[in-house]
């Protein structure tokens, strides 16, 4: 009689144990990497998305004054609060919104974000609108074509 069958079993057990350890290590490593990426992305995009949400919520509440305060300095320099309110009231009223895409980048020390939202206006009219935001005085502000 030979000892070959027990040796094969030991080798098989070792192989299975090694495979289990590698699989667990990959799962844990992948999970940690995903968590870190989501945490980083949330800190980068979260504040810009929140300003966009606040801006759109102010418009839904028919409070253009509050929305105006979230505009960047460049837009406010060319558009008074009254002009902005008149422009908002000339549009079909915003009823709801949903952010569908968020992108943040920093180039040469300037942070910008592009937040895309699906808008539903009075009368059931739907459209998709990109909101460009810039870091203005340390805070995110809606810039460009705001509405």
Can you describe this structure?
With 147 residues, this protein is an alpha+beta fold. It has one domain (4-143): NTF2-like, domain 1 (Nuclear Transport Factor 2, Chain: A). Helices cover 53% and strands 29% of the residues. It contains 4 helices and 4 strands. The protein has helices spanning 4-60, 64-68, 73-78, 81-90, and strands at residues 94-107, 110-121, 125-136, 139-143. A 4-stranded antiparallel beta sheet has the order 1-2-3-4. The radius of gyration is 26 Å and the shape is elongated. The model has no long low-confidence stretch (mean pLDDT 85).
Termini separation (Å)?
Answer: 86 Å
Sequence stretches where pLDDT stays below 50 over 5 or more residues: none
Shape: elongated
Question: SSE order in H/E notation?
Answer: HHHHEEEE
Output the strand order for the largest sheet. 1-2-3-4
Helix and strand composition category? alpha+beta
Q: Kindly report the oligomeric state of this protein.
A: single chain
Strand segment tally: 4
Radius of gyration: 26 Å
Reported for the largest beta sheet, the result is: 4 strands, antiparallel
CATH superfamily: NTF2-like, domain 1
